[in-house]
Design goal:
single chain; alpha+beta; 7-stranded beta/alpha barrel; Substrate Binding Domain Of Dnak, Chain:A, Domain 2; nine-stranded antiparallel sheet; six-stranded antiparallel sheet; 53 strands; 27% helix; elongated
């Protein structure tokens, strides 16, 4: 239970006719309601905490059925235990704790974090015992809702009638007296036009006139009058539309506080919700399987109570292990988000989640609806699209069309006051309903304090009652999300990504976080694949490792918008995941080559033959390795040569494919493709530009629309040739800008089209966005980038406001610009944000905000981006495979095998083998995850290292069959696939 705070204190008059002689101003009505609220606290008695230690205290109390503990002036967030069991939350929004009938020990455990991560010196505050007069309290809330509605509408007739109704009711609930203690509680809980704080300060002596009002019957009479008057007004003006409400507690897995505090937030929040569910009839939704895992470990008894509420249908589950980022994670990461969350729900609650609930994630990739359907959900819901800074998202209910043409029902809610943390105030409901586009279908309304957790309080639930009594507002049902998605009938369609027109900087903030995430995803791919083939796969180990990565992909952690304490944990965690996974992969590869020996073998985990350069003993050699296999290290002869020459101002590099001119300042001046007989560049490129970027409160999140207004071109201050041996040519450039330093090695190979820019950043300067610009001599309208399990095409010209708003877009491993017979792709191994403009691209390299982590990108970091001009368009040039090759390096082990070369898995056709793992429910079966990215259909042949006895097409959960034509032929399987399919194939041998 909490108290409604008016934010508009203007002295507003309501116009009335002679018949309304008792009509009062809004401030007059509000003042009376405040005193009624004070009088709702009966038998107030100040209690005293028994302090156990600095963060624990307790007291004994007797509950009489309508008893509450009111705690004021506390510092920190607390868990209230009732007789030793988790019971309720103490925070700024949950200060009234219901006390059941009987004698109880109330314990308080405090954390030194406030709701939004503010660190404080903890204090348990001042506890008061009170008995709530429910009629007076409801009269206050109902009356406050009337005032809120009056202040929010422009219809003078409705305003007048509402004011008259409230005036008539409050005439019955006349003021007689109030105690100093009641005024004191008011002064701590609310701020209004009635200055109760000053009132309390002036009552210095124990004056007998200040005592509790004993005339209680008038409040019930007044409440009944108000109900009757409002019923008359509903008959006169009617209700408008239908609202389905769901209780919700958005809990950030980490943000302005560390993970450990979130564990405490979850326990506090879940305890509160269970207590309220025992008292009120409503539905509550909670995502993030990790939270349930925490509760199951930390409070098994509470977990059992949650299971009961899930069984009743009052507690609704939402998919994903955490509310993850949806742009920068790999397709396999999203698959595991569904796999581990849905299987946990099924195992513990007997059902999977029907909803993908991502109210706060910073944009959604085009492939998400397809992945979500394969993850078992029936609908998607978000609020975040209404944070757009340029365009208003046009729909509330629609069919989200996946790249393969499938449809997922989708809902965008909370467009207006409160958003996904709404409070059921009349003004919030009215604003959201006015903004609701499809008024022929019910509106979804999410209420409950969030971000820092907490969820609904009793005030919200009572306000919902009042909404049902008020005219011109929707009819309210608190029946939850699952009920909602059964009622809606999507008609409108949206195909493609749900791009968020804000928070564009999260694609770049915290470079190390991005790089470690990419490395962890790849390391786990390698470890699972090789240990599956070596039959050393440990399911428990991989589940544990994956869950660490999934946790760290939360939508404020991977995006780089959390505090420093969070990254102290995640960096160490991800480095340990990478090291562990690499060791697992190495051990598995050693087994596959007969154990440790003196022969050097090179391993390739990608599903195509590779011929590329590898560093061995400090020297680059070219090797050839088969698909998902190994070969003895036998360098391939490089017949072509690459040479560097120089003059006073330029370096000249020439290989089989190019003539390149590079200025001593690091700029690429010309890139002439000898095979295509054309210049690649339209202007000097690899132009490093630092932009001043000070976006305000959302420092780590945002890139200013006018970020280019103040810019600084950064030129190399020195350069030197590192290598000129004919096999590889490399030049090192050193850039100095203010206190920062950039080291870049440009590397060109003798017979490769790929040009690498190996970049080390030592950033000291703050509030900068650093980009590398490439300008291509191409005639293009679109660029292609990869997304989870696929690709996306985006317009690169700004014809519309929607195009203009996409001035920074997500990509994963590449962005390609192609004409019909020629193109250029920019590859990377850990950068996610880019500006696409005509035929140019500005790859974002670093962003250095002050808030919330002032140490963002202070650590040295090295990454690679590569230029790859190609004949043909992006499909003919296999740019998807080139992007994988940059990101998935060949691996080397020393073994004893007599076989010089072996391929374990071969995949024909245009399918990418994304993952190989042991099946969840059958250790004798392996699972292959593949996807089609060129928008074609056909039949793929997959060769395996064993004869196949059974092959099944499954969903991502490995639980349900996905119809697909599969044939087995010895060690081969033939699979029919369709456009942009995502395939999960379980194979038994």
């Amino acid at each position: 239970m909490n108290l409604f705070i008016f934010k508009n204190h203007n002295f507003i008059f309501i116009y009335f006719y002679a018949r309304s002689v008792f009509m009062r101003t809004l401030n007059e009505l509000e003042a009376r309601l405040i005193l009624i609220l004070g009088n709702s606290f009966r038998n107030l008695k100040q209690l005293r905490w028994n302090v156990e230690n600095h963060n624990k205290a307790y007291l004994e109390v007797e509950g009489k059925g309508n008893s509450y503990l009111v705690i004021v002036d506390h510092k920190g967030s607390g868990l209230i235990r009732l007789n030793g069991k988790p019971y309720f939350e103490l925070d700024r929004y949950h200060t009234l704790i219901p006390i059941p009938f009987g004698s109880h020990k109330i314990s308080l455990e405090l954390s030194n974090y406030m709701d939004f991560g503010e660190k404080v010196d903890i204090s348990p505050g001042i506890p008061f015992y009170t008995e709530i007069d429910s009629n007076a309290y409801r009269l206050y809330i109902y009356g406050s809702q009337v005032l809120d509605l009056v202040r929010s509408i422009n219809d003078n007739e409705v305003k007048e009638d509402l004011g008259n109704a409230l005036s008539k009711a409050l005439r019955e609930a006349y003021f007689e007296s109030i105690s100093k203690e009641q005024l004191f509680i008011l002064s701590k809980l609310i701020r209004t036009t009635l200055d109760v704080s000053r009132m309390v300060q002036e009552i210095e002596d124990p004056l007998e006139v200040y005592k509790e009002d004993e005339n209680r019957g008038k409040y019930e009479r007044a409440l009944n009058i108000l109900k009757s008057e409002l019923s008359r007004l509903v008959s006169k003006y009617g209700k408008r539309g239908e609202l389905i409400g769901t209780g919700h507690a958005h809990i950030d897995t980490a943000w302005l506080w560390p993970f450990d505090e979130t564990r405490r937030k979850v326990l506090r929040t879940f305890s509160t919700i269970l207590t309220l569910l025992d008292k009120y009839d409503f539905h509550f939704i909670q995502s993030a399987a990790i939270y349930y895992e925490w509760i199951k470990t930390n409070s098994p008894e509470l977990f059992e109570r949650i299971k009961e509420k899930v069984k009743e249908g009052k507690w609704e589950l939402a998919a994903l292990y955490v509310e993850s980022d949806a742009n920068m994670v790999s397709g396999e990461s999203l698959a595991r988000q569904f796999l581990y969350s849905q299987r946990f729900y099924l195992e513990n609650f007997g059902r999977i989640a029907d909803i993908l609930w991502l109210p706060d994630t910073f944009g959604f990739s085009a492939s998400l609806p397809q992945i979500a359907k394969l993850g078992g959900v029936k609908a998607f819901a978000t609020h975040k699209v209404f944070w757009n800074d340029t365009n208003t998202f046009p729909f509330n209910i629609f069919k989200w069309i996946a790249p393969n043409g499938e449809q997922l029902p989708a809902v965008t809610f909370g467009h207006g006051k409160g958003g996904y943390n709404s409070d059921f105030s009349a003004s919030s409901v009215l604003e959201q309903y006015n903004n609701w586009v499809q008024k022929d279908q019910p509106m979804l309304y999410s209420y409950g304090y969030g971000d820092g957790g907490g969820g609904p309080n009793e005030d919200m639930l009572i306000r919902a009652e009042a909404i049902n009594l008020l005219p011109i507002l929707p009819k309210v049902e608190l029946s939850g999300v699952n009920s909602y998605i059964r009622k809606i009938v999507p008609v409108e369609e949206w195909r493609g990504e749900l791009y968020l027109e804000t928070h564009r900087g999260v694609l770049t903030s915290h470079s190390k976080m991005k790089l470690l995430n990419r490395m962890a995803e790849i390391a786990l791919r390698e470890a699972e694949l090789w240990s599956t083939l070596a039959r050393t796969y440990d399911k428990e180990v991989f589940t544990r490792l994956w869950k660490i990565v999934l946790k760290d992909q939360f939508h404020d952690v991977l995006p780089g918008s959390a505090i420093k304490d969070v990254y102290k944990v995640t960096y160490q965690e991800l480095e340990e995941v990478i090291n562990t996974a690499n060791n697992i992969a190495s051990e598995a590869m050693l087994k596959l080559v007969g154990g440790r020996g003196d022969k050097t073998f090179v391993f390739n985990s990608l599903s195509w033959n590779r011929e590329e350069y590898l560093e061995v003993n400090g020297k680059l050699v070219k090797v050839s390795v088969p698909s998902v296999g190994f070969s003895l290290l036998e360098p391939v002869e490089v017949k072509d040569r690459v040479v560097i020459s120089e003059n006073n101002n330029e370096y000249l590099i020439e290989n089989k494919y190019y003539k390149i001119r590079i200025g001593r300042n690091g700029e690429v001046l010309s890139l002439f493709d000898k095979e295509a007989n054309r210049e690649v560049l339209g202007d000097k490129s690899n132009l490093l530009v630092a932009y001043e970027n000070i976006p305000g409160w959302a420092d780590a999140w945002d890139i200013e629309k006018g970020f280019e207004y103040t810019s600084f071109e950064i030129k190399a201050s020195s350069s030197e040739i590192l290598n000129n041996d004919g096999i590889v040519a490399s030049i090192r450039f050193t850039y100095k800008f203010r206190k920062s330093e950039i080291i870049q090695i440009i590397r060109v190979y003798a017979d490769s089209r790929r040009i690498d820019f190996i970049t080390t950043l030592r950033m000291k300067d703050r509030e900068l966005l650093l980009k590398s610009w490439f300008y291509f001599d191409l005639n293009v309208e679109k660029a292609v980038s990869d997304i989870p399990f696929g690709v996306i095409e985006r317009f690169t010209w700004t014809n519309t406001s929607w195009d203009k708003a996409r001035f920074e877009v997500p990509n994963q491993k590449f962005v390609d610009f192609s004409e019909s017979d020629y193109g250029v792709v920019l590859l990377n191994n850990g950068k996610y944000g880019a500006t696409l403009r005509g035929s140019s691209v500005g790859l974002s390299l670093t962003k250095t905000p002050i808030y919330p982590d002032p140490s963002t990108d202070l650590e040295e970091i090295t990454f690679v981006y590569s230029l790859y001009p190609h004949l043909g368009d992006w499909k003919k040039a296999d740019v998807v495979k080139k992007a994988y090759e940059l990101n998935v390096p060949l691996r080397v082990v020393n073994g004893i095998h007599e076989v010089k070369s072996k391929s374990f898995i071969k995949v024909s056709d245009k399918l990418i083998l994304e993952a190989v793992k042991v099946a969840e429910d059958d250790s004798n079966s392996i699972v292959l995850r593949l996807y089609e990215y060129e928008n074609t259909r056909g039949e793929a042949i997959i060769e395996l290292p064993f004869n196949v006895t059974e092959a099944r097409s499954l969903d991502l959960l490995e639980l349900n069959e996905v119809p697909r034509e599969i044939k087995t032929e010895g060690n081969r399987i033939r699979i029919k696939y369709k456009n942009r399919d995502i395939l999960t194939i379980s194979v038994r041998g």
